[in-house]
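Task: complex structure prediction.
Instruction: return structure tokens for all chains below.
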Amino acid sequence: MAVVNDHTVKAFDEDLNRLRGLISEMGGRAEQALLQAMTALNKGDLDLAAQVVEGDRKIDALEAEVEQLAVQTIALRAPMADDLREMIAALKIVSVVERIGDYGKNIAKRVALMDQTRSIEAIPLLMSMSSIVAELIHDALDSFAARDAELAVRVTVRDKNVDDFYNSIFRTLVTFMMENPKHISESAHLLFVAKNLERMGDHATNIAEMVYYVVTGERMEERERGEQPEDGAAEQEQG
Amino acid sequence: MTPLTTTNDDLTITDPKMKAHGVDVFYGEKQAIKDVSIDVGTDLVTAFIGPSGCGKSTFLRSLNRMNDTVASARVTGRIELDGEDIYAPSMDVVQLRARVGMVFQKPNPFPKSIYDNVGYGPRIHGLAPAKADLDVIVERALVRAGLWDEVKDRLGESGTALSGGQQQRLCIARAIAVDPEVILMDEPCSALDPIATAKIEELIHELRGKYAIVIVTHNMQQAARVSQRTAFFHLGTLVEYGKTTDIFTNPRQERTKDYITGRYG
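Output:
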């Protein structure tokens, strides 16, 4: 579905375009934060990790800016129909993207707490998982920019892969901890990293569901979910 | 009755007060309304929206045969009030307009006292055999119109001396006084300030359920605020008719969406 911008009041179009631009930038930064945090983790690069932590401030600032602009637009333009749905979705999407940014920051903060991680076999798995998650985030935000409901549906379906990855890494790390009690501390950190990635995938699907609502006006059908995470946290964290 | 859903498809109005079927309205050669069919619910406020010249006022005026006063106007199709064809030769038009009252864009009180403005209709329709009966009717209508407290001590003053918003509520009281079943409102707030507008909207809310109300408005926020059903007219046709919440959050027709989001042009 093409994005049509042809309101009689042109200033309204300018507000909408600015809003979309800000969300796009915010999403790009959150995705970047994830990739950099994982690179920092893989290489033990403390400087890069510090950059990610610092960069999260900008993501938070963008969230505040979008919120302000959306509230202002609702107040001044009284948007209706798909415009209204977009405003509501924009508010919800930025709070989700902000959470994704926080998870990236959280991963970056763990880099300094680990020194022996390179010897842990789960690391390559985590790297693969993170690139899938980054793609999901990327595609979820692309679907918003392009008003593409089909792409949004595909994002939610692909989240199953992330959940499966998480379960596999969970088992790998638990086994590793049993066999290598000396590395329990690092392994526990890596478990949190895996959990953060799994949550980021869920947030990407949340974005996709909102995009679907913006485009169609309907809520997305309950999708086929991936295997539930096996750490017992599924119930409290779903949705 | 099918259960309520959030789609426009379920528009079941179980107890329609008025039914229009295949209505065309012509002004001379020009067709202003093309094949409009719509049910107006008894307990609902129905809003007609659409750009200028879309025919919404013309259609509204055909619901109580106000178009009869326009020499070139011709209405075909069927419009029923409680199942009765209002264009049937046997229909008493004066009686019809008492049952289907109207409030206009600009308040138009008679140049008479406040009391007489409200009492005139009941008197000529023979609803008040005695002065005491008329007093009761006038007070009740003014109370219902939310004007009583403001005018009870000066019922003898001219209706035209009131403020614009008060005059409009006086006109609503006048319409109510003959105990109508339907009230048609043709942009009742377009000449009023926001406070007076809010009072009329509150009044519409109060009157809902007592009368079937149909309101034509250019103010889409107003349609969204006061109505439960919204009909969008464009170029003489009824483009979309649905629950107000659906029309304003998720219209089905592209033309409706373009209009309510301000893309019409």
